[in-house]
Amino acid sequence: MAFIIIATANLLFGSTTTALTFPDYLSGSITIGTHTMPKHRIAAIIAGLAVFGLLWLVIEPTAFGIKTRAAVDNATAAQSVGINTSRLYTLAFAIGAALAALGGIIGSQLMPISTVR
Q1: Is residue 41 exposed (0-12), middle (13-18) or buried (19+ Cβ within 10 Å)?
Q2: Which among 7, 19, 85, 117 would be 20 to 30 A from 36, CA to CA?
Q3: Percent of the chain whose pLDDT exceeds 90
Q4: How far is CA 15 from CA 3, 72, 108, in A?
């Protein structure tokens, strides 16, 4: 539905692509061996690896991670041992939404943004 609405708005009103400018430290490129990569893509890769590492540190050794894995495996058993699964699911959803927003922010540098005018 979203794609149909976007296509209809573009057809009726036209669209324009907006390019985002990079800060000076992300402009340009770096040559690694025989490959040349833009600095903003390297920054996106580093940010992705950092988020992955942080998520692993939150999910694997902490009580939150243990409770989350227990609730995913068997919600009834997790509730019976005192885990508040509804609060846990809400927190996991909030973390997922925050990660989606972060992905959108980082990805906005990699893809053009189309706006309806």
Answers
A1: middle
A2: 19
A3: 23
A4: 14, 43, 17
pTM of the model: 0.66
Under 8 Å between Cβ of 71 and 85: yes
Q: Could you write out the DSSP letters of every residue in 47-68?
A: HHHHHHHHHHHHHSSSHHHHHH
Span 57-63, average pLDDT: 90
Q: What are phi and psi of 16, to 5 degrees?
A: -140, 150
Burial class, 43, CB count within 10 angstroms (exposed 0-12 / middle 13-18 / buried 19+): middle
The answer to whether residue 110 scores a pLDDT higher than 80 is no
Phi and psi at residue 116, to the nearest 5°: -90, 135
Task: Classify residue 116 as exposed, middle or buried by CB count within 10 Å of its CB (0-12, 13-18, 19+).
Answer: exposed
Q: What is the pLDDT, as a whole number, of residue 95?
A: 92
Tell me the three state secondary structure of residue 82.
coil
